[in-house]
Design brief:
Largest sheet: 7 strands, mixed
Strand content: 15-25%
Number of helices: 7
Helix content: 25-40%
């Protein structure tokens, strides 16, 4: 138990450095005058976009409102504070705006082995964006840290955690729904990670080399990680 706690504490200390590595790898995804669609609030995506702005790249970001947590509002505000042009859009308007964007860029809650690729667990609403992006032939980039890789994977959407009873959270005017969904590898163009740029099949190759203790650590921390990503403190 102490070993797992120690590894978890080390991961917390290294997470900021890892996000910087991911941002450096994904920087080449952002081209001058690009229009980027993001979903919800992801610290690693925000880090990448901030770094791109600091590199004097000019781009525009469309941010979904990301109900029910409304993480898009925070993301748009943070982007504007960095001098990045950001527009909030309705979740239901993704199909309308997709023809205007050059790419979709999202963070992940987890990346799970699924031959011949890797399923990814995302903030709820991401899967339908991936479907729309695929239909519009727009690249769908996943920006994520390698400590979120795990061998276990959901067989379907119903295998994911089933919450949300908003009434119990004191929110009476929002519909009930899960916090996350998963997207099959066919919808993911490339992943920007601290291990480099990977294809979904490349993630499976990486996972085959990971020790089993890594997955035990991931599984033990997944509920906390998901909570922190859905309710980030900064």
């Amino acid at each position: 138990r102490q070993s797992v706690i120690s590894k978890g504490e080390n991961l917390v200390h290294r997470s900021d450095e890892i996000r910087n590595q991911v941002a450096a790898v994904g920087l080449n995804f952002v081209k001058d005058n690009a229009i980027i669609l993001i979903h919800s609030y992801s610290r690693v995506v925000m880090r990448l976009l901030k770094r791109a702005a600091q590199a004097n790249k000019r781009f525009t970001v469309y941010v979904t409102e990301s109900r029910p947590e409304n993480g898009g509002k925070k993301a748009a505000q943070k982007l504007r504070e960095e001098g990045i042009l950001a527009y909030e859009i309705l979740d239901s308007a993704v199909g309308y705006f997709i023809e205007k964007v050059d790419m979709v860029m999202v963070g992940a809650e987890g990346v799970c082995r699924e031959r011949p690729g890797a399923d990814s667990i995302f903030q709820i609403g991401t899967y339908q964006i991936a479907v729309v992006a695929k239909a519009a032939n727009k690249p769908f980039y996943e920006v994520t840290e390698s400590y979120k890789f795990a061998r276990l994977f959901p067989l379907n959407q119903s295998n994911l955690r089933k919450r949300t009873n908003n009434a119990r959270r004191g929110v009476l005017n929002l519909p009930v729904g899960p916090p996350v969904d998963n997207a099959p590898p066919a919808f993911i163009t490339l992943l920007s990670t601290d291990l480099g740029v990977l294809t979904p099949s490349g993630v499976s190759d990486e996972l085959s080399t990971f020790p089993r203790t890594f997955n035990a650590l991931f599984i033990a921390n997944l509920p906390r990680m998901v909570h922190c990503l859905i309710h980030p403190v900064s």
